[in-house]
Amino acid sequence: MTAATRVLVLNSGSSSVKYQLLDMADGSRPASGVVERIGEEGGAADHAEALRQVARDLDGQGLGLDSPRLAAVGHRVVHGGTRFTGPTLITDEVVEEIEKLVPLAPLHNPANITGIKVARRLRPDLPQVAVFDTAFHATIPEAAARYAIDAATADRYGIRRYGFHGTSHAYVSRATAALLGREPADANVIVLHLGNGASASAVRGGVCVDTSMGLTPLEGLVMGTRSGDVDPAVVFHLERVAGMRTDEIDALLNKRSGLLGLCGANDMREIGRRMGEGDAAARLAFDVYVHRLRRYVGAFTAVLGRVDAIAFTAGVGENSAAVRAAALRDLEGLGIALDPVHNAVRASGARLVSTAASRVAVAVVPTDEEFEIARDTYALASA
Ligand SMILES: Nc1ncnc2c1ncn2[C@@H]1O[C@H](COP(=O)(O)OP(=O)(O)O)[C@@H](O)[C@H]1O
Ligand SMILES: CC(=O)OP(=O)(O)O
Ligand SMILES: [Mg+2]
């Protein structure tokens, strides 16, 4: 009999399900894919339908969930609240707890729960592990995790900074240390995860000490469709003056803001194209995006005191030389000097894009949330 060394990773997002099958014995990835545009015309109707499609895809390749080589299923779960600060073996009770966190991540946790339920129904005998976006941020000190609001109210309702994209920040900060030839314990890194959702984190010696996302994945950087930081009074103002309901404001800030709200496009490629044609709205969207990014680079430089590296990752971070260049322009005073030639090169692996003289290394490091989830899952399932 062949040993069960494979882990199926399900990464259910708000509008997509990504999956990967990883073999932990030899590092191979026998299958991967994505079902996109869930709930949109021409896409899967909902997450349950998307997951059935994933199961069919795997079956079609002879790699179905019934495979005896499967050791475990690893699920990305976005919000773990205060209870889940590490990878967790899924039980009925764990599912109930994740369900209680839905109000804190309404775009994400329901999709994660659907994935868990479908996979458990198909393979009730297999260990299934939840790997939380929030876990890596559990080390953030109180001074950075606390909001300055009435303490009793905050405690009663669990209002604090949780942070997200933690598996990416963990993986990329480690990979950046490796690129510098250092142990994670010897590297202070600012990680800029710029995907459709975007967040920054400050990692000191392998331990996260601050991050830009907060109670929910809405705070911080400008994102594809999310506003990031706004004065909280914007919400009261819209309620009182514009007569908008809470759920309308929620949808406005989460789904119709960010780059999309500023210029009608949430894809940085399209924004780049339109800027090339002299489109003023696209230019403004880019400038607002970059300005916010620079603020966080400055803030996290002060949080860390000594910065060894700044790492760009995820769709925009890995691919947009223009965003990287604009984000770090004229920061020689902070010891940051991007090399324009290295920065412009299109390549796939982790690489340095700073000059030899730059005190702070600047790196482009492809993220690998699926690897990180599989590693955590396999460790727990085979313990
Ligand atoms: N070649 C590119 N140039 C600039 N931006 C890109 C490029 N490729 C992808 N992107 C950006 O990456 C975003 C998606 O990033 P990704 O990390 O895949 O997001 P998510 O995991 O949140 O869906 C796209 O919306 C697009 O703006
Ligand atoms: C937490 C979060 O924002 O995730 P994503 O970027 O996948 O939307
Ligand atoms: Mg992502």
Automatic annotation (TrEMBL):
Its cofactor is Mg(2+); Mn(2+). Keywords: ATP-binding, Cytoplasm, Kinase, Magnesium, Metal-binding, Nucleotide-binding, Transferase. SUPFAM superfamilies: Actin-like ATPase domain (SSF53067). Its main location: cytoplasm. Its EC number is 2.7.2.1. The record marks 165, 226 as: Transition state stabilizer. The keyword Endoplasmic reticulum does not apply. It comes from the Bacteria. Pathway: Metabolic intermediate biosynthesis; acetyl-CoA biosynthesis; acetyl-CoA from acetate: step 1/2. Substrate binds at residue 76. GO terms for cellular component: cytoplasm. This is Acetate kinase. It comes from Actinacidiphila reveromycinica. The lineage of its organism: Bacteria, Bacillati, Actinomycetota, Actinomycetes, Kitasatosporales.
